[in-house]
Amino acid sequence: MISRTDTILSVRELRTEFRGGRGNVRVLDDISFDVGRGRIVGLVGESGSGKSMTALSLMGLVPRPQGQVSAKSILLDGTDLATLSPDGMRRIRGNEISMVFQEPMTSLNPVRRIWDQVGEPLAVHHGLGRRAIRDRVLEMFELVGIPEPKARLEAYPHELSGGLRQRAMIAMGLICEPKLLIADEPTTALDVTTQSQILKLMLDLRDRVGTAIIMITHDLGIIAEMCDEVNVMYAGQIVEQADVFDLFERPSHPYTRGLLASIPKAGAARATKRMPSIPGMVPNLAKLPPGCRFGPRCGDAMPVCEQPPGLAGLGRGHVARCWLHASSPATCAEGAAS
Ligand SMILES: Nc1ncnc2c1ncn2[C@@H]1O[C@H](COP(=O)(O)OP(=O)(O)OP(=O)(O)O)[C@@H](O)[C@H]1O
Ligand SMILES: [Mg+2]
Fold this sequence. Notes:
Blueprint: E1 7-20, E2 23-36, E3 40-44, H1 51-59, E4 67-70, E5 73-76, E6 79-80, H2 86-92, E7 97-100, H3 104-107, H4 114-118, H5 120-126, H6 130-143, H7 149-152, H8 162-174, E8 180-184, H9 192-209, E9 212-217, H10 220-226, E10 229-234, E11 237-243, H11 244-249, H12 254-261, H13 268-272, E12 312-313, E13 319-320
Parallel strand pairs: 3-9, 3-10, 7-8, 8-9
Antiparallel strand pairs: 1-2, 1-4, 1-5, 5-6, 10-11, 11-13, 12-13
Helix pairs in contact: 6-8, 8-9
Residues 51-52, 184 line the site of magnesium ion (MG).
């Protein structure tokens, strides 16, 4: 896998808990992975598996005090985000790491002109004046392929199509030249044609600007098209981690195999925009089964699956949290020093 010097983000043992009336619920457990410089790393899994929570935890956006994030380390180009104060995180957010969400309308203010919002990180982090910001937003609009960019600067969010709004949000995400962009289902709300245009734009930007991207999606088709490495999430854990080719060639966790086997043919999964289903339900995190979290849904379950499985190494940085491979224990992100 990637060498340490090329690693832009290195997450080790991230845990996120929510305090509730009936005790704490751990929504993320032992999340460890790396993102290489200029690489696209996928987080994939069913609804509720913890993909967005991983993103929010990295961004310092988990609501407090009910949400509590802890980690051995979260190194962003050498800075440990796990030790930063809320003020320290505010200086990083939108500047060194930024995020693009599923539905741009919810993160845009309907009564502010688009250039003013897209350029806001420059005002917040770099103290630029209005003219300089406007010029830079225009450059960014050109970069993300917004047609007639000059005229569009003055638009209000509702005057842009969904696809153009998402391009504007990507421009906003990239305006401070972040080291890492986290895209949480960035195309789920878009029609199929616009979706593929936005994905193409993101690939193109990675090649031209070199930004590393964490791509969060339900869609294994998007993973195959976009990602270099993949983390498959289930019930708050990473259950399989591999290079994208390796994952599709040698899916090793029964959950991953289930996801792959249930992809409908001829693009039907993309058309419905839903994860293909595996029989059974994602467990309630407050009432997890004692052993393997996937055990109750797993066709390969054995008596030993009553115990929680550790991570097994399958070579070339490929790991799976499954007793089927228990003869070769490993750590997540085993390719990097942990
Ligand atoms: N504010 C909160 N308080 C308590 N639990 C929460 C809170 N927000 C999310 N969760 C729980 O955290 C778990 C992970 O949720 P998350 O939003 O990360 O899933 P996801 O993989 O992004 O799903 P989706 O594909 O539906 O977006 C879920 O069980 C969810 O109920
Ligand atoms: Mg989500």
